[in-house]
Design a protein that fits this description.
Blueprint (H helix, E strand, L loop, with lengths): L1 H12 L8 H10 L18 H28 L4 H10 L18 H11 L6 H12 L2 H6 L2 H13 L4 E4 L15 E5 L2 E12 L6 E7 L9 E7 L5 E6 L10 E12 L10 H37 L1 E2 L2 E2 L4 H29 L5 H25 L10 H8 L10 H12 L6
Parallel strand pairs: 1-4
Antiparallel strand pairs: 2-3, 3-7, 4-5, 6-7, 8-9
Bound molecules: flavin-adenine dinucleotide.
């Protein structure tokens, strides 16, 4: 393990001669905050050190060489080879940058996860970054934080190494926004749970080796009767009912899954029984910040490609871009993107220092969803008929980014959380 870590670190940070260990990197982040902002500024960045940028650069190479050339094919096929892509990323250390070193992670702090999420935004679709994000920052944070050593060896370590694909089972046919009302039960029988019910919208679901399952483990109040359980997807009684056909995120497989008397050892419980809802709410914070980082780069890329296209496309004797309504609108959107980036980086800086950033993370997720819809809609407009074809990134972005206002907590759910923190939500 130490050998692999050294390999990973030296591969990522070979240019940085002062580096002696990854632990030192993470200390750098919290002890030396920088003072500038803006994606293009690298020397005096508010959050990112040269080590963050080295990590991003190294990931960019994998994206350019091993992922982007195949994206169109995987989008057309409606699935991407998760085991193959995750093994590639796992070998290079990208599936566990903020996970413990003893389980194969790089032991860095969450700001490095955000740096990775931003870099993954350079993949030319939303589906593959989302699938990677499920593996790194949606299905595994609770396991890493609260799971037993045995459980982490069985599920976390191979997920970090890219040997196992993870999925997250929270949403159900009858319960999405209102997580408390899920119906899947895990009933104790001896030293096993017997799981019955089903999950809906499970990203990676047709390919996953295990699910981080949220299930009811008692009849108590809905916020205290739930547990997170590592459920092997090859267990007898797990049925993949279908792969859902979607308007966007097409290269990511989304499954509906049924559980019919699925027996799972009780030792697969993550942390304490009855704490699942709380763990999942914590896990959601990282998911929401991650999603925000990811969409920022995609929005940057869409704006840049729109500038390039509209600069060369002439209408009424001048480039589309030179019409004031066009370049002013792009400037407005760019301003909003920078505001969102500042909010994300501030939230992340507070989070790695141990603060509760639920309110800021919810604001960032809300704004990311809404802004990406505006960016997609405005930019697509400036591409004219070309924007309506499947040949250009902007139309894929328009379809893919629409999910952000729905998945991982809809805009209205974010608004409710923000209102709770503002103490403006009417009491029931
Ligand atoms: C492509 C895709 C991938 C997904 N991946 C996963 C996954 O891997 N794991 C997983 O567990 N789930 C996943 N989801 C599920 C996703 O998180 C849910 O779709 C989302 O939480 C919304 O739930 P719902 O679809 O049941 O909508 P509903 O709960 O039925 O809500 C419908 C609408 O009601 C509105 N609404 C919600 N709350 C309020 C409110 N308080 N006031 C007013 N209006 C409100 C919102 O506009 C919302 O869109 C995925 C979904 C999709 C589409």
């Amino acid at each position: 393990m130490a050998q692999r870590l050294n390999l990973v670190v030296s591969r990522h940070f070979s240019k940085l001669t002062s580096l002696s260990s990854t632990r030192k990197l993470s200390e750098n982040v919290s002890s030396k905050p920088k003072t500038a902002s803006g994606s293009e500024i690298t020397a005096d960045h508010l959050l990112y050190t040269p080590e963050h940028f080295a990590l991003k650069e190294s990931l960019k190479k994998i994206i350019d060489q091993d992922i982007n050339p195949y994206v169109d094919q995987w989008e057309a096929e409606g699935i991407f080879p998760a085991h193959k892509v995750f093994k590639l990323l796992g070998n290079a250390g990208f599936l566990g940058v903020n996970k413990p070193v003893e389980y194969g992670g790089l032991g860095l702090d969450f700001s490095y996860s955000i740096a990775v999420s931003e870099e993954l935004g350079n993949i030319r679709c939303g589906g593959i970054p989302m699938a990677i994000g499920v593996q790194t920052d949606m299905a595994t944070p609770a396991l890493a934080r609260f799971g037993s050593t045995e459980l982490k060896k069985e599920f976390l370590m191979p997920s970090i190494m890219g040997d196992k694909v993870a999925c997250l089972g929270v949403s159900e046919v009858g319960a999405g926004s209102d997580v408390a009302t899920i119906k899947t039960n895990a009933v104790r029988e001896g030293d096993e749970y017997v799981v019955n019910g089903g999950k809906m919208w499970t990203t990676n679901g047709t390919q996953a080796d295990w699910m981080c399952l949220l299930a009811n483990t008692s009849d108590g109040p809905s916020h205290k009767n739930k547990s997170l359980i590592c459920l092997p997807m090859n267990s007898p009684g797990v049925h993949i009912a279908r792969k859902i056909d979607k308007m966007g995120m097409r290269s990511s497989d989304t499954a509906e899954v049924f559980f019919d008397d699925v027996r799972v050892p009780c030792k697969n419980l993550i942390g304490q029984e009855g704490m699942g809802f709380t763990y999942q709410m914590l896990q959601f914070q990282e998911e929401r910040l991650w999603a925000c980082g990811n969409i920022l780069t995609m929005m940057d890329n869409i704006i840049q490609e729109t500038i390039q296209y509209t600069r060369q496309r002439k209408i009424f004797k001048m480039p589309v871009l030179y019409h004031q309504s066009v370049h002013f609108r792009l400037a407005e959107l760019e301003t909003e993107i920078e505001l969102l980036r500042s909010l994300l980086h501030r939230s992340t800086a507070l989070y790695i220092k141990g603060n509760d950033v639920t309110k800021l993370a919810s604001m960032a997720k809300l704004k990311a969803g809404r802004l990406s819809r505006e960016v997609g809609d405005s930019c697509l407009q400036y591409w004219g008929g070309m924007g309506f074809t499947s040949d250009v990134l902007v139309s894929r972005f328009y379809r893919d980014a629409r999910l952000l206002s729905i998945g991982g907590g809809a805009d209205e759910v974010m608004l409710s959380i923000i209102c709770k923190y503002m103490d403006t939500l009417p009491k029931k």
